[in-house]
Amino acid sequence: MAQAPALPTGFELPLEPRLPRIGSVDQVAVEARATDLSRRSIKREAKLFALDLAVRMMDLTTLEGADTPGKVAALASKAMRPDPSDASIPSVAAVCVYPNLVQTARERVGDSGVKVASVATAFPSGQSPTDLKVAEARRVVELGADEVDMVIDRGAFLAGRYAKVYDEIVQVKEAIGETHLKVILEVGELGTFDNVRRASLLAIAAGADFIKTSTGKLSSSATLPVTLVMLEAIRDVFEETGRRVGMKPAGGIRNAKQAVQTLVLVHETLGLDWLTPDLFRFGASSLLNDVLMQIRKEKTGKYQSPDYFTID
Amino acid sequence: MAELEQRGDRTPAPAKWEYASAPESREIVNLQERYGLFVGGEFIEPRSGEYYRTLDPSSEEPLAEIPQAGAEDVALAVRTARDAFEDGWSAAAPAERAKYLYRIARILQERSREFAVLESLNGGKPIRESRDVDLPLAAAHFFYYAGWADKLEYAFPHRRPKSLGVAGQIIPWNFPLLMLAWKIAPALAAGNTVVLKPAETTPLSALLFCDVLRQAELPPGVVNIITGDGATGAALVKSDVDKIAFTGSTEVGKAIQRELAGTGKKLTLELGGKAANIIFDDCALDQAVEGIVNGIYFNQGHVCCAGSRLLVQESIYEPLIEKLKRRLTTLRVGDPLDKNTDVGAINSRQQLEKIEELVAAGKEEGAEIYQPPCRLPEKGYWFIPTVFTNVAQSYRIAQEEIFGPVLSVLTFRTPDEAIEKANNTPYGLSAGVWTEKGSRILWMAQRLEAGVIWANTYNRFDPASPFGGYKESGFGREGGRHGLEPYLDFDGAEAFGG
Fold first, then answer.
1. How far apart are CA A292 and CA B419, in angstroms?
2. Extents of the domains making up chain A
3. From the CA atom positions of chain A, what is the Rg in Å?
4. Interior CA angle at B49 toward B47 and B55, to 5°?
5. A158 touches B at CB < 8 Å
6. CA angle, residues A265, A270, A274, in degrees to nearest 5
7. A149 is catalytic
8. Given an 8 Å threshold on Cβ–Cβ distance, is A45 in contact with B322?
9. What is the pLDDT of residues B358-369, one digit of tens each?
């Protein structure tokens, strides 16, 4: 707990009794609000602005059993120069890979400014002993990761063993020191928005720099309502403590339109301050090309063949 | 924060992200320079010879000339409706009536964009709302009552329902087409003919609706639409109709009731409100804030059931008001036709002046005013979404219906006190309750004197759900099976509930 952050008011109680005091979420209303915001009409320069931002906020991801150094090297090259034909396209925020490929990614991105993020803690299930998870997190930092994306133990969370979930995050945070920690809640397994809110606040209280929706391994992932619930948790912590926690929706965001809708959600929930890769990331494997295609369409007025965008 | 700074390579947040304007095109709407009265299936010139101009309230630009129907015009429309009733409509097979209602519903769906644009143009409401709320609900209402038209015997078993004759209907300017649907659909389903007067400031969607009636091949004279101001409405009330259905202010409603006393004409009134929206400390806070916003800023607060009195449990007062104020800064006020507009124009100069007068009174009485930073257009009628805190139950802004985007916030300590304060008003149209406790919702609903009570939501409508008031908010129900009853007589059995 070396760097235990300030907690929202009411957190002086032991952990279990304080959790019910963190408020609740009304599912119908939160879905209605997300739908309303998704209908914002973002056009022309406003759209271009969002698309450029989406590129800069992207954690370009490959998390497959079949990942090889060749695949990761190609991905890292794409991360640094997403569109070689347009110099105005920025590089993405990070590449996100499995631990075994951290070194490959590290070598390829070099000092380009693109970060290397690695998943850890028995990703995606989190069903391993705590000491192994902590050791894995420590190891990926040694291998060169700038950012660690850990998963919470959903089994423990759903069994009501919140303290175990909390302690694991604290231990991982201690183990990786200043390295940037993103905590994956795997919302698709949490079942309710109330649980998403609890898990968000739990992860934040335990020291998460970012909270992240999903592993990308489930069909239900970064929907707009779930993103909104997490943004509202972040907003509550900020308003009570002044601490800024980042957000990373991951999984299910496949096209530029979804990315723009998500950014509208951030803009109208947390304001402009969160519209930076320091506080917001997209975790995605197939989003980038659609965003690039839409950028070129906004600039030239024409859609181009997908063949003009590299598949990596 | 400290951790982020230590990383050293921060990317600054942008200074602004302005959404480019995204106006819905007006092209789809074809306005005539001058309209007629729709009587007997034709547009006719008013015998009064008088016209007035209807405006776009967001720009004060005149849109068209509208007839001011006089007493003679009203009498002609009522006679025409009477003839249509006697010459076939009352004897038509119920399934025939259903057929026309279904047709109208489908045509409204097909032409919904055109109607939505016109509704926003003439009324000032955001296109987002006319597109997503007014039009779908109006069509749904016709679909719903189409289903009842040939099932009246089942709606009122053993009571032999019979149509009344001619219904005179007077509707307000806040939901012009939707209120038209609420009135016309049950009246036709029950086998009556209609003379309807839209509000003075918002006649255009009703006049376009005449085109829908022709397209649906509704027999001439079954629905007649006459335009004009309050004098026209007064003439309709005095005319030879069998029933008056009025939605509007309590003041006018009382005058109508006095006028009709002893005439034997049936009457339903849907009048004003000063609804309590009650927030308990265990509610889902962020969603309650959305409900508060939807309750009072939806349609610029021009909603009879608006949640205009916010009752907040004291233990949650500060965080809730902070959240609410923050949320207000994200409301987008402006061009009603812009798809990103949340709050549009005030419907008329007269209404704007009324809002301004009451807001001035609120300041003078000592309430604390909050308005988010907001740049209003130079022309047109506008009012910044406003919250009054520190409001006492005795202030005018806590008592009188403002009918604008102005919220008065009061506090309470216990459920009993919430009930006491909520019911302490001459009105009784609607109320909202926000709590995660199901048992408390039921406890509150049993005690609140209001026709409609929403729990953990606000301003939700469905044609199957009856709507109407207690006390000075009126009587009679619209919507649902209950909504048929005011348009029917019952042979040989007592009608229940007047």
1. 57
2. 25-301
3. 19
4. 120
5. no
6. 95
7. yes
8. no
9. 999 999 999 999
Within 8 A by CB and 6+ apart from B177, the residues are: B115, B119, B134, B135, B138, B205, B206, B209
Mutate to test the interface with B, among A30, A35, A41, A266 (most CBs of B within 10 A): A41
Q: Which residues of B are catalytic?
A: 270, 304
Q: Which residue of B11, B283, B285 is in closest CB contact with A276?
A: B11
| Coil vs helix vs strand at B72 | helix
Q: What is the mean pLDDT of residues A165-186?
A: 96
Q: Is A151 exposed, middle or buried (0-12, 13-18, 19+ CB in 10 A)?
A: buried
Token output for B480: 């649902």
Q: Is A212 a catalytic residue?
A: yes
pLDDT for residue A19 is more than 60: no
Q: How many CB pairs under 8 A join A and B?
A: 93
Kindly determine whether residue B284 and residue A239, on different chains, have CB atoms separated by under 8 Å. no
Which residues on neighbouring strands pair with residue B313, listed in sequence order? B412
Cβ within 8 Å, pair A47-B128? no
Across the range A145-155, mean pLDDT stands at: 98
The domain made up of B276-463 is a member of CATH 3.30.1540.10: no
pTM: 0.93
The upper half-sphere exposure of residue A66, i.e. CA atoms within 13 Å in the direction of its Cβ, equals: 0
Q: How does pLDDT run across B118-146, given as a tens digit for each residue?
A: 999 999 999 999 999 999 999 999 999 99
Whole-number Å distance between alpha carbons of B31 and B111: 15
Tell whether A53 is within 8 A of chain B (Cβ): yes
A15 — pLDDT class (breaks 50, 70, 90): low
Nearest-Cα distance to chain B for A52, in Å, is 12
Q: Are B134 and B202 in contact (CB under 8 A)?
A: no
| CB-based contact, A273 to chain B, within 8 Å | yes
Q: What is the pLDDT of residues A176-201, one digit of tens each?
A: 999 999 999 999 999 999 999 999 99
A25-301, CATH topology level: TIM Barrel (3.20.20)
List beta partners, residue B52.
Answer: B66
Give B340's contacts in chain A (Cβ within 8 Å): 40-41
Percent of chain B with pLDDT over 90: 95
Nearest to A41 among B13, B288, B339 (CB): B339
* Tally of CA atoms within 13 A in the half-sphere of B79 that contains its CB: 6
Nearest CA in chain A to B458: A29
Option in B4, B339, B436 nearest A278 (CB): B4
Contacts of B288 in chain A (CB under 8 A): 26
Residue linked to tokens 């423990």: A156
Query: Which residue ranges make up each domain of chain B?
Result: 37-271+474-490, 276-463
CA of A267 to nearest chain B CA: how many angstroms apart?
A: 8
Note the CATH number of domain B37-271+474-490: 3.40.605.10
Q: What are the tens digits of pLDDT across the range A220-241?
A: 889 999 999 999 999 999 988 8
Confirm if A224 and A259 have CB atoms less than 8 A apart. no
Range B239-264 average pLDDT: 96
